[in-house]
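Board work, copied verbatim: Glutamate 5-kinase
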Amino acid sequence: MSMVSLPEHTLPTWRRAVLKVGSNLLAADGGGLTPRYAQRLAGFIDASQRAGREVVLVSSGAVAAGRALLRTRAVPGPELAAKQALAALGQAPMIALWQSLSERPVAQVLLTHDDLRNRRRYLNARATLRELLMLGVLPVVNENDTVAVDELKLGDNDNLAAIVAALVDADLLLIASDVDALYNADPRNNPAAEPIGHVPQLTPRIIAMAGGSGTGVGTGGMRTKLQAAEKAAAAGIPTALFSGRETATVTALEQDRLRGTLIDVAGNRMQARKYWLRHAPAGNGSVSIDAGAVRALTGGRASLLPGGILDVAGEFHRGDLVEIVDANDRPVARGLCQYGAAEVRRVAGRHSRDIATLLGYSYGEEVVHRDDLAIIAGESAA
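↓ predict structure ↓
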């Protein structure tokens, strides 16, 4: 795309950023990986680190790298298993590419759905990433495709990058791809499409402008980038969308100039714990509550008590993140459950003082404590 009419903005002040690099910037025309565009982005990372800033890299490309290593033969097995095998095979060359371009040591960090759903593992991942940054290391994050299954996948690295940005308390989310900005129409089909340089707040109208994936190499398109920006904004983190293929664009980043789209944050940062509760992948279980409990949860700082519980669906364990729904299965809240599904079924509808008698023990009067709750009634939890 032409950069002639692309607007330029000053980047927000930042000390720590998450940079997501898409597959289309790493995949070589003949298969495998190429440093053609990655080298410029690595230069930006090095320059940022020399300036006392910290960068976490979320990189795609493992599957493309793995496929290139087996280009002379087909990969047997089901589609998911084949992709997992290619991801496992391609992780090493993908990390080797970034290490070859980086002035500093590179560390691989693979995250799964469960790492982000389990509060303790979430905090462990955050501690590891922060320690790597303190050591001056470049963390390279990816989803652990080798063990993920379709129903438990995070889905794409755009959304993973937004979650990682909140995980490390980043000041800025940078998304580099083969698209230079958000446009008011699809520029591939509409020559009159104009770039949008600044989005003060994501609205349904803005999100509706997004299309699907532009090529067959990556798993995300502009829609996933806006979804990621929405997640980042909920944590108080602005997002910059830009082309990683344009030398002038990447060079401008070193001077805190953005040639692309800046998606701003409306409002203050959400408390980190509440953000995690709203956006981390939930488990397979849910708790249905009555109208009185719905009013109590949505009307103030109330905990979920057993007396308001109508039913339990699925299975979960103590400490798992569960969905809380009303009698019509409409989302009300998400929270960390202090009891497992079998235990909640036994105390449902009963008074809190009966918990110890019914179970023979008690972890407290609340099934979900108010400090472990995030209200989502009337909103999307995505």
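The chain has a mean pLDDT of 86.
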